[in-house]
Specification:
The protein is built from 14 helices and 27 strands. The relative contact order is 0.11. Among the domains are: 19-164, Immunoglobulin-like; 367-461, no CATH class. The longest helix has 17 residues, at 2-18.
Length: 571
């Protein structure tokens, strides 16, 4: 009997220790009288500076995150975050060690969309912030509060989301920078509600003084721009604070360097020698990401056509673009690098050259550092007796920051159904077919990494840019020869150089016609190297709008059709 009692006490003690804390998360009636849909995100951090919600990342210092979906959550009704909630980097609340923490909760709001394909889905519509759950206007959140989790578990904590992210101001027009926003007929029809695309347009010097001039157009693709960046009519103050430090470049005072580069660009832009043109940054944030990847997609809708056949004509009509393919060029880095090459490949007659820097994987034979078609698992290289985690990010020395699995589990904690608004999820949302539930078909099991070969085959035929070029070279080759320029650091943080190597081999091999392309690498250069070996990358990455100009002008001179306007804009 004595031993049975000891065993029972031991089991009870183990049960007590296995109990996890429970969090009851609510919002007050003052923040919404209506029930809300979305995802409740609960963050635990060891410090409240910055706020816990700003500490979630792929870095080893990340805060802890848990997420639960809520549907029609009423004011005052509790969303429960307990041991069953999926977490990152710790999988469950039961794995959280006793100690002091700062806790904060966020409600990332979802809207209901009744799409034209017959599916009804709940997604977080962008609200002018560039698809960011931390700052999205209207999202509710709590102030960080200090708690103490004790050994033995079983504690309950109440968290009230009584704060709300404010509406963001719209950018204002200046002499040189104009803003345009149109409702897209194509996207509105697809999404079943008004949908808009927009752009920030940098006008050339002398635009008003030369009303008869028409201009070439360059699209600078990239992530969501809240305004046209990197252009300033005033120099930085001489006494500007230079105590800021950017770890990536090991530099103090980088903000002043950025400000000086913006002013230097203004001086070049307005100089007599600089060619007069329009530079456009597109705003196409959507319910899945901060931009659409500028292509048509089963899940996102016809963004490629909306941009190409609705937005660009409006821009060229308003701001006197030449409006012909020989006078359009495109460039960008990372997401923008993929987009630059993609629109050149998918709309080959509409552009006369692309400059793709550090592009997202341009062939899925090297989907970062694994083969999407031949490997069985995205998270592990698997042998008969061992599984090796795949690295997800590295520095120029090859030191690993996180694994592919860790990044994907962070996304899964932020949002189910590809709704994290982050990198792997947007690739999935753009490239995948629609699933039976209306959300993107998973390219792999988000928990385990097991790859779905059927979905991978769909990706290949629709968005693998090297495969498309190879498959269709007989018809595509004559339209893109001489137009493709690709640049990448050979120590890209996300292993994007691997796909570039394969693309380079392909472009060198093709005949009838030869590709006449350019591929260059930065020695030991990390992500965002964009083709200038004479400057450190912390400088060259700020010069996208000037570094390809000479090549653009040469291409125009070589390829403009007879009778083309080569003079009105060269004042």
């Amino acid at each position: 009997m004595k031993y049975q009692l000891l065993i029972l006490l031991g089991l009870l003690s183990m049960a007590a220790r296995s109990q996890s804390p429970t969090f009851s998360v609510t919002f007050p009636l003052s923040k919404s009288v209506k029930p809300l849909d979305g995802r409740v995100l609960l963050i635990l951090a060891k410090t409240d500076k910055p706020e816990p919600r700003s500490q979630v990342s792929d870095a080893v210092e990340t805060a802890q995150l848990f997420g639960v979906d809520v549907n029609e959550l009423k004011p005052g009704q509790a969303a429960t975050v307990d041991a069953s909630a999926f977490g990152y980097p710790k999988r469950s609340l039961k794995n959280i060690a006793p100690g002091d923490y700062y806790v904060q909760a966020v409600l990332h709001k979802y809207e209901t969309f009744k799409r034209s394909d017959g599916h009804t889905v709940k997604l977080p519509m962008d609200r002018g912030e560039g698809q960011n759950w931390r700052t999205a206007p209207g999202n509710l959140f709590s102030k960080a509060q200090k708690i103490s989790i004790k050994a033995g578990g079983g504690q309950s904590f109440a968290v009230v989301m009584d704060q709300e992210n404010p509406v963001l101001p719209l950018p204002k027009d200046t002499k040189f920078i104009k803003h345009i926003r149109i409702q897209s007929k194509r996207l509105t029809e697809f999404w079943g509600r008004p949908m808009f695309v927009g752009a920030h347009v940098l006008l050339p010097a002398g635009f008003d003084e030369h009303p008869d001039a028409h201009f070439p157009l360059c699209i600078y693709h990239g992530h969501f721009p809240d305004d046209f960046a990197g252009f300033s009519e005033t120099p930085p103050p001489a006494n500007m604070d230079t105590t800021d430090y950017i770890e990536r470049f090991k530099l103090h005072g980088y903000k002043k360097i950025v400000a000086q580069e913006a002013y230097d660009f203004y001086k070049k832009w307005t100089s007599k020698e600089f060619p007069r043109m329009l530079i456009v940054e597109i705003q196409h944030a959507n319910p899945y990401y901060d931009d659409s990847y500028a292509v048509n997609s089963e899940n996102l809708g016809p963004y490629g056509d909306a941009i190409m056949y609705e937005l660009l004509p409006e821009i060229e009509n308003q701001f006197r673009g030449i409006g012909q393919g020989w006078a359009r060029f495109t460039y960008g880095g990372s997401t923008g690098g993929w987009e630059a090459l993609a629109v050149q490949v998918l709309y080959p007659d509409e552009f006369n050259g692309c400059f793709a820097a550090c592009p997202d994987p341009i062939t899925f034979d090297a989907y970062t550092n694994f083969n999407l078609y031949k490997d069985k698992n995205a998270y592990y290289a698997e042998g008969p007796f061992r599984r090796t985690p795949r690295p997800g990010q590295r520095n120029y020395l090859g030191q690993v920051k996180c694994t592919v699995e860790q990044s994907n589990h962070r996304e899964l904690a932020i949002g189910t159904h590809s709704r994290s608004g982050d990198q792997f999820d947007i690739w999935e949302a753009v490239y995948s077919p629609v699933g039976a539930d209306g959300y993107p078909k998973r390219i792999w099991n988000k928990l385990t990494g097991e790859i779905d070969t059927t979905v991978a085959n769909y990706w290949r035929e629709h968005y693998d840019l090297m495969h498309i070029l190879r498959r269709d070279w007989k018809t595509l080759g004559p339209k893109v020869a001489g137009k493709i320029h690709i640049y990448c650091g050979d120590m890209d943080n996300y292993y994007l150089n691997n796909a570039v190597y394969l693309m380079e081999d392909f472009l060198k091999s093709v005949q009838n016609p030869v590709a006449n392309s350019e591929v260059a690498y930065g020695d030991r250069a990390e992500h965002c190297w964009n083709g200038d070996p004479t400057q450190p990358n912390y400088i060259s990455r700020l010069r996208y709008n000037t570094m390809y100009v000479d090549k653009i002008m040469k291409r125009i001179e070589e390829s403009a059709p007879q009778g083309a306007d080569l003079k009105s804009w060269r004042y």
